[in-house]
Design brief:
Radius of gyration: 19 Å
CATH topology of the largest domain: Cyclophilin
Number of domains: 2
Number of strands: 13
Distance between the termini: 46 Å
CATH superfamily of the largest domain: Cyclophilin-like
Structural class: alpha+beta
Strand content: 25-35%
CATH architecture of the largest domain: Beta Barrel
Largest sheet: 7 strands, mixed, barrel
Shape: elongated
CATH class of the largest domain: Mainly Beta
Strand order of the largest sheet: 5-12-9-10-7-6-13
């Protein structure tokens, strides 16, 4: 990446959006993480918020302290520094590996059997493939704590459900296309559910409030039903889930 390869567009009277690529992958995620840090350090109190996504960064700044032109220069300088670094992101962040426990089962994963059948695999094979892959946190959103993780092994990639569920329980581990995620709270959703994770993905009273950040690596580890309960997991949140 060079500062010429990024595209900076106006996103509001005090916001710019920086596009790094037309797609997200591990290399782009690393570039975004490094550039985000550079922008934060350079803008300091002039920065109101910075939102990293798959292939872009939204930079919201205090227009009483700076302007589009100055912020654009900061962004391009950070992009150049990122390109010149021998590694794309600071080691002390990108080496973070978070392991999330999952109780995979037909009880907690109502789409597990159908996903396995469509893939021509057994449910155990789907579980093994899902937990043997190391994922990158590409973005956070649509809800606080909802981390988009990629990329799912193409053998178990699955299209979104034709009819989304009105309620997906907190902690549901799911797959959509070549992404996987853990629902941080009960919400509607159309992803394929394969298990439950007892680890809270968002807690406003905790420090940090989320166990993962953009750029982190995530792996999943299968646990038993009893381990799930011992770790604070609750099966009564499944309700009428089908």
């Amino acid at each position: 990446m060079t500062n010429q390869s990024i595209k900076i567009s106006v996103a509001g009277e005090n916001a710019l959006i920086v596009y790094f690529s037309d797609h997200g992958d591990a290399a782009v995620a690393a570039q975004i993480q490094a550039c985000s840090l550079g922008i934060r350090l350079a803008l300091g109190p002039k920065l109101i918020d910075l939102v990293a996504s798959y292939a872009s960064i939204l930079v919201i700044y205090d227009d009483l302290l700076t302007d589009h032109f100055a912020v654009s220069k900061v962004i391009r300088a950070a992009a150049t520094e990122t390109f010149n670094q021998s590694t794309a992101t600071p080691t002390n962040h990108t080496e973070n590996l978070i392991t999330l426990p999952v109780y995979y089962s037909l009880e907690t994963g109502p789409d597990l059997a159908a996903l396995a059948e469509n893939a021509g695999l057994t449910t155990d094979q789907v579980i093994d493939i899902h937990q043997s892959t190391e994922y990158r946190v590409y973005a956070i959103g649509f809800a606080p704590g909802f981390a988009y993780l990629g990329e799912v092994d193409e053998r178990i990639a699955a299209s979104r459900l034709a009819t989304p569920r009105l309620k997906v329980p907190r902690g549901a581990v799911a797959i959509a296309d070549r992404q996987t995620a853990v629902y941080p709270a009960e919400s509607p959703g159309g992803w394929n559910l394969i298990g439950l994770c007892p680890t809270p993905m968002f807690d406003a009273k905790a420090d940090p409030i989320m166990p993962v950040s953009t750029g982190d690596r995530v792996s999943f580890k299968a646990i038993s039903k009893q381990d799930f309960i011992d770790l604070g997991g609750k099966l009564d949140i499944l309700g009428e889930l089908k």
